[in-house]
């Protein structure tokens, strides 16, 4: 049997949408975070989580454990849905499936996005609700992040900003706690990167938040 392969034949499996969102989330967590306002509303049997997203923000959301509804109250956003990538303009409302994790890009006006969940026991504990509704990422969800999680994200953004790796910083820091001799090339590299980045760039890109 002969197998003929054209030049475009590719054995690498295509990434799923979830894989792409997770990869994007990892990159966005290296960047300074957008100032996204989160509001929580409770009515009998219903919990609504509203986020107000600034213009030109790129963001990802947490994976959802159960089905829910989305109400886009205001603005335009490009986002992945159950029916593929779409550009949505509010006001509109649509159902969302369990297992969905979104990535979105806001245009030149702020977006008001509301997730609407069944809440049969009228739970008002945000930590409990987040654990119940989402696969909470390592660095937490929006305004519920701990100070440690915020510090970890800020540190990742610092390294990204200076084009540094953890290993480079660790080698510099380790000299303060032992007799290890730091190599001159690493010291010079770190110093140059810090000088160039800190003096040459003042504006920071917008980063990742939960959708």
Brief account:
This protein is α+β, with helices and mostly antiparallel strands and 211 residues long.
What are the SSEs and their pairings?
Blueprint: H1 17-28, E1 37-43, E2 46-53, E3 58-60, E4 63-64, E5 68-74, E6 76-81, E7 84-89, E8 92-96, E9 103-106, E10 111-118, H2 126-133, E11 134-135, H3 147-162, H4 166-174, H5 184-200
Antiparallel strand pairs: 1-2, 2-10, 3-9, 4-11, 5-8, 5-10, 6-7, 6-9
What would your notes on this structure say?
The protein has 211 residues and is an alpha+beta fold. It has 2 domains: 110 residues, Jelly Rolls (Sandwich); 51 residues, no CATH class. The strands form 3 sheets. A 5-stranded antiparallel sheet has the order 1-2-10-5-8, with no helix packed on it. Strand 1 and strand 2 form a beta hairpin. The termini are far apart. The N terminus and C terminus are likely disordered.
Relative helix content: 25-40%
The order of strands across the largest sheet is: 1-2-10-5-8
Uncertain segments are: 1-7, 200-209
How many helices? 5
CATH topology name of the largest domain, in short, is: Jelly Rolls
Total tally of structural domains? 2
């Amino acid at each position: 049997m002969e197998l003929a392969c054209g030049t475009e034949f590719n054995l690498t499996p295509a990434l799923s949408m979830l894989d792409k969102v997770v990869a994007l989330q990892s990159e966005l967590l290296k960047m300074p975070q957008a100032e996204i306002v989160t509001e929580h509303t409770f009515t009998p049997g219903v919990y609504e989580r509203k986020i107000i997203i600034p213009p030109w923000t790129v963001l990802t959301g947490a994976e959802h454990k159960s089905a829910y509804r989305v109400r886009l109250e205001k603005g335009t956003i490009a986002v992945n849905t159950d029916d593929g990538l779409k550009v949505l303009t509010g006001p509109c409302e649509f159902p969302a499936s369990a297992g969905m994790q979104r990535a979105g890009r806001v245009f030149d006006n702020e977006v008001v996005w509301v997730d609407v969940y069944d809440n049969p026991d009228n739970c008002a504990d945000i930590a409990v609700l987040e654990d119940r509704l989402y696969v909470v990422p390592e660095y937490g969800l929006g305004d519920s992040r701990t100070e440690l999680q915020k510090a970890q994200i800020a540190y990742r953004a610092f390294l990204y900003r200076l084009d540094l790796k953890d290993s480079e910083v660790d080698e510099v820091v380790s000299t303060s706690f032992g007799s290890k001799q730091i190599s001159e090339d690493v010291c010079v590299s770190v110093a140059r990167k810090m000088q160039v980045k800190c003096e040459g760039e003042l504006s920071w890109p917008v980063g990742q938040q939960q959708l």
